[in-house]
Amino acid sequence: MQPAAEPDNISDTFGGALAKEGSEDRRDEPQVTAASSVADELLALIMGQLAPGASLPSEAELAERYDVSRLTVREAVKMLAGRGLLELARGRRAVVKEPDGSAFGDFLSSIIQYDPKGLYDLVEVRLALEIQSVTLAARRASRAGLAAIEGTIEAMRRAAEEMKAGQDPAGAETRFHNADVGFHEALALASGNRILAYLFEAMASPLQESFYLTRRGHELRGHTPEHTIAAHQTILKFVRQGDSRGAAEAMRTHLEDAERDIRTALGSRTVGPGNRS
User: Fold this and answer.
1) φ, ψ for residue 86, nearest 5 deg
2) Residues 174 and 244 in one domain
């Protein structure tokens, strides 16, 4: 038997290995492309025909509909689940989830946690969104919407009194910031714009984290929680009067003040939201 021919040089050896590896990579590519394509089809199905809580068709039905393997369907479903659109559970079909904006909120939280500039970016985004939100609220707010806004201010007052009395200071501060976030969410809901309401729901956690730092700067500038409450009350006054221009200006003043608080806190080397002492 003739011995196997040796490769002419080392490049033949590696060339053959690379060619084999490249062939294997290319063999994987159609599967990824097919799964992405099916994910796009399923996204259109979810957005156009399926309400939250509805179940997807079975893997077998989807595989037949899109002329792919069940494995491809499974990968496509996992892609959408990873984007927060589907809920998966063993032994049952995938279920369409109610959008909650958690991925967007996590993204914002990571930015403001690791990059001080992210706090200023958040204020700029808030200026754009909240001025529009309060302008629409002044035009559209119902009695129930106004009551909800007022309720958040009352919750801020109670928490401020607890902080002043030294009753559970850390817990009282958390309640104060929760109510503050609730104020901005209530305005977005009162605007009647579902997308604005969704965005503020998604921003709730990063907003609360930023408020801890804002309050540090607020204190360093000689202000108290009562000043924050007064600013909120002024905004509500204009919304209640249906004065969209006045409400927008009051919101702009409030957010520009918040930016000054952040600059003061960072300039004094105050640690961010993670340090709440």
Assistant:
1) -130, 150
2) yes
